[in-house]
UniProtKB/TrEMBL annotation:
It is found in: Membrane. This is GOLD domain-containing protein. The keyword Membrane applies. It comes from Edaphochlamys debaryana. GO terms for cellular component: membrane. It is a single-pass type I membrane protein.
Length: 238
């Protein structure tokens, strides 16, 4: 029984170490008009040993600093062989891609800002990762028998491979969850910035309108008072 109690603890520590040692890719790039910027993410071969279909998953936010033009970009996802896996044109605000992976190697996501955009595009790649979102049968079986037989079975290579694949699958899934949380946080921050910008702009124009009305009112009062000044009208003799 002591062996069964220690095994879950060691497995939990392995899972925690794997989750903490990996990170969700996140990068923000500025793409001038007529330029293309690419970001790569390497995927090891061990990830393709996990049961289920591996998917390349990511979320992108697009914004700009110009007050007169709204930038838009074309986004492409490329396989390690350079094949195009996914593309979307005229992305003004945000998008989400989820496509099947094609083996280990370096996957790229490229952002093209056309000349028609007329301004720099700020592209926020919130996360870009590989995940087995549809997992097959990868449950870890607890061996039967005496304590010595269980310890030998747990220490076997096949069993440890199952544990490692399960940890990798959980790590991938946590990357997607963490990336989705970052995406919601970034989106909320962008909405707050938009609200603050609209508030400042509304207050500015409201104040300007009040000042114009006050100036117009003062001018009208002065004009009316000027007509009633002494000597303004000439006397008419009868």
């Amino acid at each position: 029984m002591a062996g069964l109690r220690r095994a879950p603890t060691s497995t939990f520590l392995l899972v925690a170490f794997a989750l903490l040692s990996r990170h969700v890719s996140a990068v923000k790039v500025t793409v001038p008009p007529g330029r293309t910027e690419c970001v790569g993410e390497s995927v090891d071969a061990e990830h393709f040993a996990i049961p289920g279909g591996p998917r390349v998953d990511g979320r992108v936010l697009v914004s700009g600093n110009s007050q007169y033009y709204v930038p838009f970009v074309t986004i492409r996802v490329l396989s390690p062989n350079g094949d195009q896996l996914w593309q979307q044109q005229h992305v003004y605000s945000e998008t989400h891609f989820n496509v099947g992976a094609r083996g280990p190697g370096s996957y790229k996501v490229c952002f093209y800002n056309p000349w028609e955009s007329r301004t720099d595009a700020i592209v926020d790649l919130v996360y870009f990762t590989l995940a087995h979102l549809r997992r097959g049968s990868g449950a870890i079986t607890i061996p039967k028998g005496t304590q010595d037989d269980r310890n030998k079975e747990v220490a076997s290579t096949d069993h440890m491979d199952d544990v490692r694949r399960t940890i990798l699958g959980m790590s991938e899934f946590m990357q997607v969850i963490s990336g989705s949380q970052k995406y919601l946080t970034r989106k909320l921050e962008r909405h707050q910035e938009t609200m603050e910008s609209n508030k400042r702009r509304t207050l500015f124009y409201t104040g300007l309108e009040v000042m114009v009305l006050l100036v117009v009112g003062v001018v009208q009062v002065l004009a009316v008072m000027g007509f009633f000044k002494t000597g303004k009208f000439s006397k008419v003799s009868v």
